[in-house]
């Protein structure tokens, strides 16, 4: 694997350049671009979900790779087609051509060809990064991507505050175009093992993973999770920009806070994922992500500053864990041929994204001009979407507990625990598995003579695994 150190390094650079461009297709920056091209809430919802919806077409990745000749060639060709499309955006803005269909077509083609890039890259990088190093490696990769995201988030938000709004958008889209092309050029320099680059005659069958009980549980989780995200995701930024009219520079600063915190968390979560399991990290991330829709439901023109700050901090802890662990968990529970499992996952996520974006979009169109009063307090209709999103995220994290993956209990010294003197340390599987473990009371014969048996019998409950720890 040492011979592929260059590829792993280039992959980190590619992640940084890609994120510098991709961040312009997310959040308040993309919403601002979409509104400039006269997009409605429904169009915004559909466009932001296109990258997930397009993943359904990953089932054709193997045939496309065979048609082109090799996985690497397919990776490069699709990357150039999908990413160079954004060179058109500054041209349309310069000539003052506005239509929501322009954005729709660009995002559609970017998502369609980009999905083949994602599928092929996932299969290839799996052969370059050893399993035991994936948490740490992808943590470092995400750190570098976050650094470039911080820089470009600051610049993009500053450009959008220019007195000449058109000039600001021209600068934003020009930088996006530059970094999109650069990321494709970096992919050209990647090297992969010959056996992984060859197009083996894999008969792709996305239905075979459904026979795997554990992976079927994972797909059920992915469906609900993807639906929950795509249902509400476009309206966080829409609520900020179109309804509350929050300053772009302020939103950019909040994004920078999230990215700065994420830099440290990616490395931390990478180490934790390698040691205690990606499922534990993912469960924690999703649980923390449930706070965001609740905070947006309570946000208004008088308190948005403090809530945005709290949300920026929670988002860092939540999404750095999710972005790192969900990919690792997919690789961990996939079996060979992995293309079947990756394609099945993408297909299910795409179906969920279609239903999520359409249902969220239609609901948002009806709620756009509605104001609701609850106990005398006014709420915008869009805020109802956040409550539904909160409930769906809770359901998804519960479904995740049914997925079987590598999980090691997180141990800590019980300094303030009454059990500390007896057991020295305790263990917990978070956040829900604690309640599923088999418990038993300690027998009197198992206690040291010096222990007050009557008190210990009333207070001590330990897991079966503690016996292994003492042995």
From TrEMBL:
* Signal peptide (from-to): none
- Known InterPro entries for this protein? MFS, MFS_dom, MFS_trans_sf, Sugar_transport-like
Note one Pfam family from the annotation. MFS_1
Please list where the region (Disordered) is annotated: 446-471
Respond yes or no to whether keyword Membrane is given for this record.
yes
Residue ranges of every copy of the Major facilitator superfamily (MFS) profile domain listed in the record: 1-408
- Stretches assigned to coiled coil: none
Annotated membrane-spanning segments are: 12-36, 42-62, 74-95, 101-125, 137-156, 168-188, 218-238, 250-269, 281-299, 311-331, 343-364, 384-403
What UniProt keywords apply to this chain's record, in alphabetical order?
A: Membrane, Transmembrane, Transmembrane helix
Q: Which PROSITE patterns match?
A: MFS
The GO terms this record gives for MF are: transmembrane transporter activity
For this entry, the protein name equals MFS transporter
Name its species: Petrotoga mexicana DSM 14811
């Amino acid at each position: 694997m040492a011979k592929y150190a260059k590829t792993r390094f280039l992959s980190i650079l590619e992640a940084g350049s890609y994120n510098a461009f991709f961040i312009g297709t997310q959040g308040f920056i993309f919403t601002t671009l979409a509104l400039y091209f006269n997009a409605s809430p429904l169009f915004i919802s559909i466009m932001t979900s296109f990258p997930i919806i397009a993943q359904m077409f990953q089932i054709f990745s193997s045939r496309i790779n065979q048609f082109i000749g090799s996985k690497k060639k397919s990776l490069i060709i699709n990357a150039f087609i999908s990413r160079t499309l954004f060179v058109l955006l500054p041209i349309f803005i310069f000539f003052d051509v506005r239509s929501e269909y322009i954005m729709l077509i660009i995002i559609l083609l970017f998502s369609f060809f980009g999905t083949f890039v994602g599928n092929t890259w996932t299969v290839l990088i799996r052969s370059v990064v050893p399993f035991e190093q994936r948490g740490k490696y992808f943590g470092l990769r995400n750190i570098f991507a976050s650094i470039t995201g911080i820089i470009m988030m600051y610049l993009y938000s500053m450009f959008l505050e220019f007195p000449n709004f058109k000039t600001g958008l021209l600068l934003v889209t020009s930088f996006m175009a530059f970094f999109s092309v650069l990321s494709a050029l970096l992919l050209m320099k990647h090297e992969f093992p010959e056996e992984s680059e060859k197009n083996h005659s894999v008969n792709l069958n996305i239905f075979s993973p459904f026979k795997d009980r554990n992976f079927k549980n994972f797909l059920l989780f992915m469906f609900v999770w993807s639906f929950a995200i795509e249902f509400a995701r476009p309206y966080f930024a829409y609520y900020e920009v179109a309804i509350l009219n929050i300053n772009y520079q302020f939103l950019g600063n909040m994004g920078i806070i999230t990215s700065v915190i994420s830099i440290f968390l990616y490395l931390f979560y990478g180490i934790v994922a390698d040691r205690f399991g990606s499922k534990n990290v993912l469960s924690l991330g999703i649980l923390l992500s449930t706070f965001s829709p609740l905070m947006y439901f309570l946000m208004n023109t008088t308190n948005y500053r403090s809530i945005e700050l709290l949300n920026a901090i929670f988002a860092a802890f939540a999404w750095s864990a999710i972005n790192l662990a969900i990919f690792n968990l997919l690789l961990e529970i996939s079996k060979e041929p992995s293309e079947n499992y990756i394609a099945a996952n993408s297909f299910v996520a795409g179906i969920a994204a279609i239903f999520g974006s359409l249902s969220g979009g239609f609901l948002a169109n009806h709620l756009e001009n509605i104001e609701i009063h609850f106990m005398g307090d006014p709420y915008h209709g869009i805020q109802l979407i956040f409550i539904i999103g909160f409930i769906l995220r809770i359901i998804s994290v519960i479904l995740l507990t049914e997925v079987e993956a590598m999980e090691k209990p997180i141990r800590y010294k019980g300094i303030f625990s009454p059990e500390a003197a007896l057991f020295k340390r305790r263990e917990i599987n978070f956040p829900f598995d604690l309640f599923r473990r088999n418990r038993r009371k300690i027998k009197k014969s198992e206690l040291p003579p010096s222990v007050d048996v009557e008190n210990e019998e009333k207070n001590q409950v330990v897991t079966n695994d503690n016996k292994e720890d003492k042995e």
